[in-house]
């Protein structure tokens, strides 16, 4: 059976066929299919600082390990003699059909992985028909990414700044560029303790990286002070020159002088975090937008109940990929309790997804869809847009084949009976 003859409902077989047939001539996949090799190869392609920022997690990285262990301890229980000749991987979220239960997670400072950054990922998302959640800490402004996506679905991740005027501005911009939901991220109201970055003394934002949503925002620009406040510390070492070059380059991109860039970075640092958020603030966000609001970073069933009481539209179970609190349990371990407490709210899952089989397990435990994070960044580092597309194709292909081999015809039919009872 040729590619053209193969049913459109078989992305797994299509992907396998492409790789194996082209492999006859000696061609090998552009990015490794193995999750472990994918990360290892991407690390080689990134700078030491970039690899530490993208790959690293909080503290001893116990939470990141727990995320993976939570998948390993939940085996799939396949059934046989069921007609799985056709599969339906589609899901519907807030009235919008999605090709597969996979969205690209919001990940900041993608320019660390590839010069085309978020724009390459936006094009990859459009090409593969999956949704992209624009990062609040993007390297490319949301408007440029939206223009590259056509009618493909996109959401916007919000870090609630201490400046409500800026929050209103970015939410309005997200609405204007076609975002279909606001993802309020609550697991990063403060930056976690990340030894890999600390050991290198490296925070990309201080070099003007990952600030595109700010530097292009009219409200933020109006509030850039004429001079940076005294922080009590001063940069030391020859790295100052490299940091200055980065600031100058970003300033040129956004029409800001070197002095304005230094002040813009200082203003960002002063206004970025909002540790005083409470449940009462959800009502204020609701006043700012009519879009569905999802809370990202929910791990507690009690918080899921409170979210329902405060009119939230959806939840994302996440521990930020283990990047915030060292010593949490795996994100997947929190999923069943949150799903049970969420009522009719859709619950999505984030943190630890590496393969299509991982997606299957998250769906079996009640997730409506998952957010794919680091793997697509690794593909981006290795091959830009094409590399990100390869990773998306591989994860969807494995999900398709896992679904079929588990004896399930549609992802909507995946439930806890598909896993070995605990």
Describe this structure in words.
The chain has helices spanning 11-24, 35-45, 48-55, 62-72, 117-128, 142-149, 164-176, 195-200, 212-215, 218-222, 239-254, 258-271, 281-288, 301-309, 331-341, 356-364, 374-405; strands spanning 91-93, 96-98, 102-104, 131-134, 154-158, 182-185, 293-298, 314-317, 347-349, 369-372. It has 422 residues and is α/β, with parallel strands linked by helices. The protein has a domain at 72-204 and 274-418: TIM Barrel (Alpha-Beta Barrel). Strands 3-4-5-6-7-8-9-10 form an eight-stranded parallel barrel, surrounded by seven helices. A two-stranded antiparallel sheet has the order 1-2. Helix 1 (11-24) packs across helix 17 (374-405), helix 5 packs parallel to helix 17 (374-405) and helix 11 (239-254) crosses helix 12 (258-271). 49% of the residues are buried. Mean pLDDT is 95; it is low at 1-8.
Helix and strand pattern: HHHHEEEHEHEHEHHHHHHEHEHEHEH
* The CATH homologous superfamily of one domain: Aldolase class I
- What's the story with the biggest beta sheet? 8 strands, parallel, barrel
What is the overall silhouette? globular
Per DSSP E runs of 2 or more residues, the count of β-strands stands at 10
Total count of helical runs of at least 4 residues: 17
Overall mean confidence score, pLDDT: 95
Radius of gyration, in angstroms, nearest whole number: 21 Å
Numbering strands along the chain, what is their spatial order in the largest sheet?
Answer: 3-4-5-6-7-8-9-10
CATH class membership of one domain: Alpha Beta
Question: Which fold name is given in CATH as the topology of one domain?
Answer: TIM Barrel
By CATH, the architecture of one domain is named Alpha-Beta Barrel
């Amino acid at each position: 059976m040729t590619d053209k003859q193969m049913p459109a409902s078989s992305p797994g077989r299509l992907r396998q066929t492409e790789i194996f047939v082209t492999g006859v001539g000696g061609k090998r996949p552009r990015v490794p299919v193995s999750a472990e090799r994918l990360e290892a190869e991407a690390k080689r392609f990134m700078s030491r600082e970039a690899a530490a920022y993208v790959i690293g997690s909080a503290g001893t990285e116990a939470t990141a390990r727990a995320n993976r262990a939570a998948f390993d301890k939940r085996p799939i229980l396949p059934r046989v003699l069921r007609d799985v000749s056709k599969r339906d991987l589609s899901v519907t979220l807030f009235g919008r059909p999605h090709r597969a239960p996979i969205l690209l997670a919001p990940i900041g400072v993608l320019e660390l992985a590839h010069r085309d950054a978020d724009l390459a990922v936006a094009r990859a998302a459009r090409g593969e028909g999956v949704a992209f959640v624009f990062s609040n800490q993007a390297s490319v402004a949301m408007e440029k990414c939206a223009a590259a996506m056509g009618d493909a679905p996109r959401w916007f991740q919000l870090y609630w700044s201490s400046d409500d005027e800026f929050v209103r501005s970015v939410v309005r911009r997200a609405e204007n560029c076609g975002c279909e939901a606001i993802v309020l991220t609550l697991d990063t109201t403060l930056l976690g303790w990340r030894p890999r970055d600390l050991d290198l003394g490296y925070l990309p934002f201080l070099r003007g990286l990952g600030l595109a949503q700010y530097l292009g925002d009219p409200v933020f620009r109006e509030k850039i002070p004429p001079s940076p406040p005294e922080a009590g510390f001063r940069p030391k070492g020859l790295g100052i020159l490299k940091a200055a070059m980065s600031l100058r380059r970003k300033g040129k991109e956004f029409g800001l002088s070197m002095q304005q860039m230094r002040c813009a970075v200082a203003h960002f640092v002063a206004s970025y975090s909002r540790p005083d958020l409470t449940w009462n603030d959800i009502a204020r966000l609701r006043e700012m937008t009519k879009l569905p609001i999802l809370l990202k970073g929910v791990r507690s069933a009690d918080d899921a109940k409170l979210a329902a009481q405060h009119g939230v539209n959806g939840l994302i179970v996440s521990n930020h990929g283990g990047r915030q609190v060292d010593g949490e349990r795996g994100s997947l371990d929190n999923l069943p309790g949150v799903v049970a407490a969420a009522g009719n709210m859709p619950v999505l899952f984030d943190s630890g997804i590496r393969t299509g089989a991982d997606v299957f397990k998250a769906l079996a435990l009640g997730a409506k869809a998952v957010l794919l994070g680091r793997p697509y960044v690794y593909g981006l580092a290795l091959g830009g847009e094409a590399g990100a597309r390869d990773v998306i194709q591989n994860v969807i292909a494995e999900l398709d084949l896992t679904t079929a081999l588990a004896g399930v015809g549609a992802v909507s039919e995946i439930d806890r009976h598909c896993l070995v009872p605990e």
